[in-house]
Specification:
Shape: elongated
Strand order of the largest sheet: 1-3-2-4-5
Number of strands: 5
Number of helices: 15
Helix content: 55-70%
Order of helices and strands: EHEHEHEEHHHHHHHHHHHH
Structural class: alpha/beta
Distance between the termini: 62 Å
Radius of gyration: 24 Å
């Protein structure tokens, strides 16, 4: 076995110490392998080389699945090699197969701490204390020093959106790496930005509500009312209800198609974990049938 100081052989007994506890300080890449696995032997030197290069910014834990079958079963390892990234005691990322060094490096870079991470935390504190302008300035300066850091772009875009600069937020997210764009946080933010850009900012929701009350089939007013309601605190469900009404009343019309697309954007902006998404998806399915 390697004498690499950043690589450790882990067993069932040592897992709590070597992985769970150590991942509180730095990411731990857990390499599930077996002696008979040729791709495992191809990947191992790549992992060990990177562990040395990063000098402890992440640690390697090697688990022989032929010996530690219970650990492999516990973490649902079905193919070899499988590498899982642990942070704060839980798996947060993984890849399978003998990836090239550049791809492995990309996974590592997503999880190791960078100076920009401290700026993200500081900017969040500034925004929470009411100093949004200082938060934006800090994040923009940090981005010039680390333009490839996905979480930094997401943080800046979120602050720009909070400051009503949806176009700026969109431009910031455009440069987000493709892999990072597939992450849930980025998808939610992208949907919120698109909703903000499509909203009729000059629309008076009270006036639009009166128009709808006077003419329930004014689908254009309903769509505009929904856009306005969505951006008001606590009015997300009211917005979705208006959009569903457009879909029910306007089958086959451009207004109904616009309402459906807006509703799907709202679902994306809320995220799959929001219980309202599942509930309103079922109502949408009923309305379309």
């Amino acid at each position: 076995m390697s004498d690499n100081p950043f690589v450790t052989v882990v067993t069932q007994e040592s897992f709590p110490t070597e992985v769970t506890q150590r991942s509180a300080a730095v990411p731990v890449l857990v390499d599930f392998w077996a002696d008979w696995c040729a791709p495992c032997k191809m990947l191992a030197p790549v992992l060990e080389k990177l562990a040395l290069e990063y000098e402890g910014k992440f640690l390697m834990a090697k688990i022989d699945t032929e010996v530690e079958r219970d650990l492999a079963a516990q973490f649902a390892v079905r193919s070899l090699p499988t590498v899982k990234v642990f942070r704060h005691g839980a798996p947060v990322d993984e890849f399978m197969g003998a990836l090239p060094e550049s791809a492995v490096r990309e996974v590592i870079e997503r999880h190791i701490e960078r100076p920009a991470d401290l700026d993200i935390a500081k900017a969040a504190d500034l925004a929470d204390s009411g100093n949004a302008e200082a938060a934006l300035t800090l994040l923009k300066e940090s981005l010039t020093n680390d333009p490839e850091h996905g979480p930094l772009r997401v943080a800046l875009a979120q602050q720009q959106l909070n400051a009503k600069d949806a176009q700026g937020a969109l431009e910031t997210l455009k440069e987000l790496p493709l892999v990072a764009k597939q992450e849930e946080e980025a998808k939610i933010l992208q949907a919120r930005i698109e909703l903000a850009l499509s909203a009729d900012e000059t629309g008076d929701t009270d006036e639009l509500a009166q128009r709808v009350a006077q003419n329930p089939n004014d689908l254009s007013a309903r769509n505009r009312l929904a856009a306005g309601l969505f951006h008001q605190p606590g009015q997300v469900e009211a917005a979705m209800t208006q959009l569903l009404e457009v879909i029910k009343r306007g089958r086959g019309t451009s207004e109904a198609d616009q309402a459906r697309q807006t509703l799907l954007q709202i679902f994306a902006s809320l995220g799959n974990q929001d219980e309202r998404v599942g509930r309103y998806r079922r109502v949408l399915a009923q309305a379309l049938n």
